[in-house]
Amino acid sequence: MEIKPQPGPQTAFLCSDADIAIYGGSAGGGKSYALLLHAMSIANVGSNAVLMRKTFPEIIQEGGLWDYAMELYNPLGAISKQSTELTFNFPSGGSVSFGHMQHEKDKYKWQGAQIACIGFDELAHFSKSQFFYMLSRNRDPKGKVTPHIRGTCNPDPDSWLAQFLSWWIGEDGYPIKERAGATRYFITVQDEIQWGDTKSELIERFGKDSEPKSVAFYPASIQDNQILISKDPGYIASLKALDEVDRARLLGGNWKAKRIGKLFKNPKFADWDFRYDSTAWVDTGFGGGNNTTLQIAINIGSEYIVIGFSWPESVIHLYDEFARLCKKYHVGTVTFESNADKGASAREFRKFWPSVEDHPERENKHNKIVNYGVYNWGKIYIASEINQYESGRRWLSNLLAYEEKVEPDDEADGMASLIRSIEDGGPIAYNLGNLE
Ligand SMILES: Nc1ncnc2c1ncn2[C@@H]1O[C@H](COP(=O)(O)OP(=O)(O)OP(=O)(O)O)[C@@H](O)[C@H]1O
Ligand SMILES: [Mg+2]
Known about the structure:
Blueprint: H1 9-15, E1 20-25, H2 31-44, E2 48-53, H3 56-60, H4 65-73, E3 79-82, E4 86-89, E5 95-100, E6 117-120, H5 128-135, E7 148-153, H6 160-164, E8 183-189, E9 192-196, H7 199-206, E10 213-220, H8 226-231, H9 234-240, H10 244-250, E11 268-270, E12 278-283, E13 292-300, E14 303-311, H11 319-328, E15 331-337, H12 344-349, E16 356-359, H13 365-374, E17 380-383, H14 390-401, H15 410-423, H16 432-435
Parallel strand pairs: 1-7, 1-10, 2-5, 2-6, 6-7, 11-17, 12-15, 14-17, 15-16
Antiparallel strand pairs: 3-4, 4-5, 8-9, 8-10, 12-13, 13-14
Helix pairs in contact: 1-2, 2-4, 13-15
The structure holds adenosine-5'-triphosphate and magnesium ion.
């Protein structure tokens, strides 16, 4: 078997000398394959690469990165090791490992690590802060290659990445041809990204201690993957059969195709499972059109069962009701979103329920709803008994009526915050039965 990149953007991506090179666009463009080829070239010269996917199952599932790697790396004499870590050790002394960061906090597992080449497959699935955290882990202790980051992605208009790549994307959502593979530079100043056309421009603006990083974006198209097209001629037809929005994104590589209308459609229902402990989140409202919402979730594996309640009243009338519901649904910790009252309602509720936290919100609300609510919607089941409560029916109908940036959004906001708090390391559900 001859292993080599295909002509066009796959080759260009592999030859990139940018600190950060991103290969994004159509499904089947050959992006993941390119990432594996790249990591191989790093390992071949005796250095180390880590390829990341958001979750562990995505790495090892059939046809995932691990399978590809077996096919590509074994013939080169690389020895695979599948223990707590997934690694290929190359005869040169270099290695390619596979990692995941399902939860926000998982980034800290890489504290202290030094990785010459970090590759993110489906970069838009990672959070911006995970990506930037990993930038700080990007060093080559062996001094064999210039440390760099590589990423692949499908277009996702709501992701932080769409913003990060906006210079390369046209008004119509398609990549600007003349800018394909062009390099730009950025530095981060007080959490804000500042872009420049050249390194010296940024150094002039922000001083000689600023260390601009170069970024290049390579648009991927299925048409560039002739190997796939000849092996599987039906693949393009199946992309054409997608709905309009997915077709524009996954066949056309469009970064602005978006669904308008409701974001939470066709809810799935499941019975609440009282064997599990749960986590709760209160979106505090103070009346006057602002609903107070309480949402409770159990998290089993990667799936959630959620029950939510919504009241047009101020939070101060609802503590008894919260306490009753928290008890009924075996809640561990309750978090109050508490910007408006500086945590006063959280402190008040502590008299009724001991484990209370409060959380002043700084994140952009819409991004949060998309990144944690919409993104996880396929894994969320609504508790069937929600319909037995008037406040439950109100919560669900407001959630299902939610459209981007249209009020009321307290239900969508509360649910997204709750899922985020669990993903960021809130209590993972444990089986109470097993603990006895
Ligand atoms: N250089 C290459 N040599 C041989 N086969 C290749 C090469 N590049 C891509 N392919 C083939 O094309 C297929 C699709 O490529 P790949 O999985 O990398 O696409 P992708 O852009 O990551 O797709 P998706 O967006 O669905 O993740 C691979 O399974 C592989 O068989
Ligand atoms: Mg892929």
